[in-house]
Amino acid sequence: MNSIKIFSPATVANVSCGYDAMGFSMEALGDEMIFTKTKEKSVIISKIEGADLPFEANKNVVGVVAQHMLNDSKADFGLDIQIFKKFKPGSGLGSSAASASGTAFAINTLLNGKYSNLELTKFAMQGEVTACGSAIADNVAAAIYGGFILVRSYEPLDIIGIPTPSKLVATVIHPQIEIKTEAARKVVPQNIPVKTAISQWANVGGLVSGLYAEDFDLIGRSLVDLVAEPNRKKLIPYFDEVKEAAISNGALGAGISGSGPSIFALSKGKQTANKVAEAMNTVYKNSGIDYSIYVSNISKAGARII
Ligand code: ADP
What we know:
By secondary structure, the chain is α+β, with helices and mostly antiparallel strands. It has helices spanning 61-73, 95-110, 117-132, 138-145, 181-186, 194-213, 216-222, 229-232, 239-248, 270-284, and strands at residues 3-13, 22-38, 43-49, 78-84, 148-154, 157-162, 168-175, 253-256, 263-268, 291-297, 304-305. The strands form two sheets. Strands 1, 2, 3, 4, 5, 6 and 11 form a seven-stranded mixed beta sheet that branches. A four-stranded antiparallel beta sheet has the order 8-9-7-10, with helices on both faces. Adenosine-5'-diphosphate binds at residues 53, 60-62, 83, 89-97, 99, 131-132, 181, 258. Adenosine-5'-diphosphate (ADP) is lined by residues 53, 60-62, 83, 89-97, 99, 131-132, 181, 258.
């Protein structure tokens, strides 16, 4: 195989109670990329459509991950890479993670599946270092494994894939305002009372069991975040209104996607998820803020060949 075209999904990290530990991947939203082997052993990004991103391989997460993998595998080829971004960087939907994970997946395919998903996650995390300064795993792991994931531990890295009920559908609104990841991190307290921690880990347990048991009410009851959301929501215009509109229109729960500004809701079934999208639209349509709304199944597989 000399050339492949891949899709790599957008991802929702945190998922309310799972702050910095959980994520899931979107079926219908993500980057596309074409990887072509070259004789020259270098990494060239020859096309970027849909976003204003650096072409220099050491500044673009795609180039960073590619170079790490070519070095590690001592590959006897280089790469020409074309990137087609389908959603905006800085949305809180794992834009850099989609690029980084898609790159890891594509190169692994060109190397005939040399690496495990855990190893691919580690390569993709190098891209996150370039994008945001730290090797965060939740978005990249969700984009590689697909479905829901839990980052159980960083040292050693331990990623748990969690079965996802096929009826679970995500609705996401992306208000096009800028929130710096650094600003979003700063508002989250460094210390929390044990009482708060107990509620948070009890909800993570509830969410994971709800996903396994396909218990939609339990999933809904567990989508509570007492750590990041109370502090971060003030950075997102109409957050409370969107959450309230989503839940009163049938969503199981809603919260901030990653570090925002996107807001996600989870519903049982497409029909409810579409109704939730309409309700979100009603909140934002006169806001004067540009926004996009997506309704998507949660993908069972992560990055894939198209
Ligand atoms: P979000 O997760 O909020 O969508 P990211 O955390 O992914 O956004 O951050 C995007 C940052 O990563 C931007 O500063 C962008 O310039 C940088 N970046 C570098 N390469 C890429 C790439 N290929 N795709 C997306 N963002 C990239």
